[in-house]
Write a structure and sequence with these properties.
Layout (H helix, E strand, L loop, with lengths): L5 H10 L12 H9 L17 H11 L2 H21 L6 H15 L11 H5 L15 H20 L2 H22 L1 H6 L19 H10 L5 H14 L4 H7 L5 H18 L4
Amino acid sequence: MSSLTDIEKRYLEKILDMQGGWVLDYTDATFAEFFKRHKIDIHSQRYQTYGTSKAKKMRAFWDQEPDAVVAPVLSEMLASYTAYCELNGRTPDHAVLEKCQAIVARLYGGTATTAAAETVDSFLNREFIIPNLHKLPVEAQVADVIEARLEEVRKALAAGAPLAVIFLCGSVLEGVLLGAAQQHPEKFNRCPSSPKTPEGKVKPFHEWSLAQLIDVAHDVGLLKLDVKKFSHGLRDFRNFIHPYEQMASRFTPDQHTAKVCFQVLKAALASLAGER
């Protein structure tokens, strides 16, 4: 079991908005996907000690697992919290967030530092220029399609159509990352985080999820850490292309959300083109 104290758990429950049985805005599907990246089946019977809500499974998780397992999960969850606030136009609770970051640092066996991760504000306030699309790791014909989709993004932003912006940005990101995998097959296939079949073989690239493409692209050095973090936020929102997912998560995007997603896409394109 982890060494989290009762007081530490109270801070974490506050920041993750667990009072009503939820954990941030995760649906059952996105919650499972989040934990799957850490090789954990959060919906298994093992984590239903206290009940079946996401919050109760989270409590069972940190009660049962050691610090070395809990720390990286909570670290990424706190990063998701900051992205969640920014993408939804909410002001993060910086005082509680700092306490939670210190808690995670303790679990890692170290101390909290502000240099450990870039803040949401500093990332979003930077100027990212869309690179020459022919520098991207995709075929020339695909670069032309991407250019057309980026123009559609600009039109959707001007028209006040945030969902269209989010879906277009997600599709462009997935297309470019798939192209990167196809241009660098050895790197992607040999990466320890590449998705495997039950037999242990690396899956064909067309079967990789966007989350898997993001993680491996970072692990092979094509995406910076900050871009990886925010790209997962964009990926989460892109999943709301399914109406029932959007309804279940109570997700209501606005122009601010759309602009943030476009910022994330621009940062990812710059990183993949080797311009940052």
